[in-house]
Amino acid sequence: MNPEGNKDGSSKEAPAAKSEAERLASAEDSPPRTFKRRLLDALITLLIAFLIAVLVQSFLVSGFIIPSSSMSPTLQVGDRVLAEKLSYYWRSPRRGDIIIFRYPPESEDSLETSNPLYRPFERIGETLHLAHKSSIAYVKRVVAVEGETVELRDGNLYVDNVKREESYAVRDNDNYGPLKVGKGELFCLGDNRSNSRDSRVWGMVNVRSVIGRVFLIWWPTSRIQKPA
Questions:
Q1: What is the pTM of this model?
Q2: Has 70 been annotated as catalytic?
Q3: How far, in Å, CA of 142 to CA of 173, rounded?
Q4: Mean pLDDT of 196-216
Q5: CATH of 58-223, one of 3.40.50.300, 3.40.50.1100, 2.10.109.10, 3.60.140.10
Q6: Strand 162-163 relative to strand 156-159: parallel, antiparallel, unpaired?
Q7: Catalytic residue selected from 70, 110, 135, 196
Q8: How many other C-beta atoms lie within 10 A of the C-beta of residue 170?
Q9: Domain ranges of the chain
Q10: Residue 3's pLDDT is what?
Q11: Fewer CB within 10 A of the terminal residue: the chain, N end or C end?
Q12: How are the residues of the chain apportioned to helix, strand and coil, as percentages rounded to the nearest 5?
């Protein structure tokens, strides 16, 4: 018995594959997309891109421009930096971190909500300039954290009575403290000590006012680097 034959014994041929010309003709026969359809597709693409950008800036990384020389030479006027937010989901800021925070740091409008359920909406609102509208983004370096005692003697930094080496700092001859950092607070200074308004002037930085940690200078290209 011929497995490929018909009942009458005749052979059964497979249908021939469509030629390239037939496929092109079939494609040409399909109805073209209308202008409204193309416009809708473009709008959907833009909306998706917008939503991704908002989510990234709200929960992962935000960009900032350095407006003053208070952090010079580490960060210079006009530097564009990226601040990541992931680290502070798991830990509090540490001594040596360069942070972006909302100023004034103890103002109610500068503080992030303590309600974890509302917090994601507040962060999205901040990205859309709907929350924390009266605060300003500041950048400084954390030099002492909760429970530590900070002091400046002739411009030298002491934390818990131990002198700290600061290769990044441009020191002045300032004397300050000793002062113990309170619960949920940070003591922050600019690297350019003689040209910085910082915790010596307006006091502690509340941890809930912190936006993120500066991890990269990305512009100008000649200065692309991880800040020390």
A1: 0.83
A2: yes
A3: 19
A4: 97
A5: 2.10.109.10
A6: antiparallel
A7: 70
A8: 18
A9: 58-223
A10: 45
A11: N
A12: 30, 30, 45
